[in-house]
Amino acid sequence: MLLSQSYTDRRLMNANIAARFRQVFESNLDKVCLLRPGLADWTYRDLLFAMGQYANALNSLGVEPGDRVMVQVEKTPEAIALYLGCLQIGGVYVPVNTAYTLDEVAYFVSDADPKVLVSSTDVNLGPSNMILDSDGSGSLAVLAKSQSTNCVVASLKGEELAAILYTSGTTGRSKGAMLSHDNLSSNAETLVDYWSWQDNDILIHALPIYHVHGLFVASHCVFLTGTTMLFFPKFEAGAIIQHIKQATVLMGVPTFYTRLLEYSEFDEQLTDHMRLFISGSAPLTEQTFLNFEEKTGHRILERYGMSETGMITSNPYDGDRLAGTVGYALPNVQVRITGDKGEVLKPELVGGIEVRGPNVFSGYWRMPEKTAQEFRSDGFFVTGDMGVMSSDGRVSIVGREKDLVISGGLNVYPKEVEILIDALEGVKESAVIGVPHPDFGEAVVVVIVGNSLIKLSELDAYLKDRLARFKQPKAIFHLNELPRNAMGKVQKNRLRELYASTFKAES
Ligand code: AMP
């Protein structure tokens, strides 16, 4: 049976996502929720009980509705129970990337002002500091185990805060995106329906759980439907290949797919039982999409979203999944493309992507001015991404606004240059950036992975009839790999720093 048949019934339930999860867990007590290769599985009963214990533990530490609980821990079932327990009592969950240093965490603590800080080691940063280790032990686990498994679910309205996600912010201060219970439940509902979630789905969950993709998109589809996830502490292509026969859905960032494709055994036969491969959080190249289809027969479904908004667009489940596009606005979500002055552009014109809907956050934590700057008066949020929409509403992203190169006063969208260079023999991938130039303000530069022999003169000849002169790179650099963050996003700010003085000698 398609779970979407009960979609309307579930919609009528509480928008408080904690209460929603509890109802689902109570109806699926004996079903496995976390399937853990080589380790003990967790049923929904196990998770329900642990969720209650963590909720009570937080309660005993003084956490009340609206209080922030900051968490920087490894991915364990206990960490999931902690997240769910926090939601139950109306705490505001604030996950922090495990790669962040003590100084960075100190900033988040001063900004979010949490009642409790849960981390893997004692960091002594002010608020009550509890420990949850990479094996699920530590002072918080001990406290939780001493608690009753029943907890009182806070009675919360849909608009109350459920989580604050700090944006990866490559420049300036990282901002805390405030997400409500309504934001989370509306988006999860939509995705379960749009991606046709099935009763017997088993999701490969190999994403981190401090980010919107792993914590909300992946986990919520499972929790809302009482289905199962194959729970991996982190992504390892070999482990995925070993266990993929147990699964039906994989959600990943593009690097998951490029890594899997490096294995000869990752082929049609290995994946013929799979229902769906989903990609997001960073651009999936056309080449990866096509290689994947050629090798497995599956067309990866690419979707687009961000911390502030949850998911915004998706390629269709039944219709055409097109390489290089992120599909259509999700049901109830409105997307428009605007020009420099905020005017709505006609189809096929490149502009800023704006979004409005029940999924969109209410603002940045304690930053009213920044919030006001990024919302239009009619409630649309300015995403900072640039894109184009076809006349039938299909969206393609051309890059972040801050990655736009302005050379001699003319706009160059990195993606249009990268697509052409990626198609060259031996090129694995490329990143186009703008660096300071004495004449042009900025000059287009390309960083290439693979094909380390290609020269600028050859590139010039190849691009001569394909791209306007001002869009053609004025320098080439070669790297073994592009710098990426944990979500697979290319860190163009680092490349810009690395090559900032390329044209300095000429000035
Ligand atoms: P985050 O808040 O870390 O999830 O980052 C959100 C940003 O990731 C978006 O604003 C986009 O720039 C980028 N992003 C997410 N999904 C895609 C996608 N499918 N293609 C291209 N960029 C994406």
Structural write-up:
Helix 3 packs across helix 6 and helix 10 packs across helix 12. It is globular and about 70 Å long. Helix content is 30%, strand content 24%. It contains 16 helices and 25 strands. The strands form 6 sheets. Strands 2-1-10-9-11-12-13-14-15 form a 9-stranded mixed beta sheet. A 4-stranded parallel beta sheet has the order 4-3-5-6, with helices on one face. Helix 12 links the parallel strand 12 and strand 13 (301-306). The protein has 507 residues and is of the alpha/beta class. The longest helix is centred in the first third of the chain and has 17 residues, at 44-60. The structure holds adenosine monophosphate. Adenosine monophosphate binds next to strand 13, strand 19 and strand 20. Adenosine monophosphate (AMP) binds next to strand 13, strand 19 and strand 20.
- Estimate the strand proportion: 15-25%
Assign a percent range to the helix content.
25-40%
Question: What's the β-strand tally?
Answer: 25
In whole angstroms, how far apart are the ends? Answer: 68 Å
Strand order of the largest sheet: 2-1-10-9-11-12-13-14-15
**Can you tell me the residue ranges where pLDDT is under 50 for at least 5 consecutive residues?**
1-13
Bound molecules: adenosine monophosphate
Let me know the largest β-sheet: 9 strands, mixed
What global shape is seen? globular
H/I helix tally:
16
What's the Cα radius of gyration? 23 Å
Q: What structural class should be given to the helix and strand makeup? A: alpha/beta
Chain-averaged pLDDT? 93
Question: What's the multimeric state?
Answer: single chain
